[in-house]
Amino acid sequence: MTRTEQEGHTSPPGDWRREYWRKNLRLMVILLSVWFIVSFGCGILFVDQLNKITIVGFPLGFWFAQQGAIYTFLVLILIYALRMDRLDDEYGVSERDGDGERL
């Protein structure tokens, strides 16, 4: 049973899809904004300020431009997958069988 069914919401048919999509888009915008700030901001705009800081002999701005944005992107993919799994469970559209096991 989904959360909207448990709470007794009586919304028009198909309205849950709009809410589901709205939450999905909001999550994507937030995560892509973080990635943009890290990759463009730290790797290009603030590179001179960040290069004044060195970690293990490498300037921080160089690290963000070469590897930091990639690591951030991988972490954001993981966050997106976990959050969407929770969102799918919330709206009853997850890919699980009757026992709760993944298909």
Outline the structure in words.
With 103 residues, the protein is mainly α. The chain has a domain at 31-92. Helices cover 69% and strands 4% of the residues. It contains 4 helices and 2 strands, in the order H-H-H-E-E-H. It has helices spanning 3-6, 15-45, 47-50, 60-91, and strands spanning 54-55, 58-59. It has a two-stranded antiparallel ribbon with strand order 1-2. Strand 1 (54-55) and strand 2 (58-59) form a beta hairpin. Helix 2 runs antiparallel to helix 4 (60-91). The longest helix is centred in the C-terminal third of the chain and has 32 residues, at 60-91. The radius of gyration is 20 Å and the shape is elongated. The two termini are 18 Å apart.
Give the topology, please.
Elements: H1 3-6, H2 15-45, H3 47-50, E1 54-55, E2 58-59, H4 60-91
Antiparallel strand pairs: 1-2
Q: In sequence order, what are the helices and strands, one letter per element?
A: HHHEEH
What is the residue-averaged pLDDT? Answer: 85
Please provide the count of β strands.
2
Low-confidence stretches: none
Distance between the termini: 18 Å
User: Tally the helices: what do you get?
Assistant: 4
Q: Globular, elongated, flat, extended or rod-shaped: what is the shape?
A: elongated
How would you sum up this structure in a few lines?
69% of the residues lie in helices and 4% in strands. The chain starts with a helix and ends in a 12-residue tail after the last helix.
Top keywords for this entry?
two-stranded antiparallel sheet
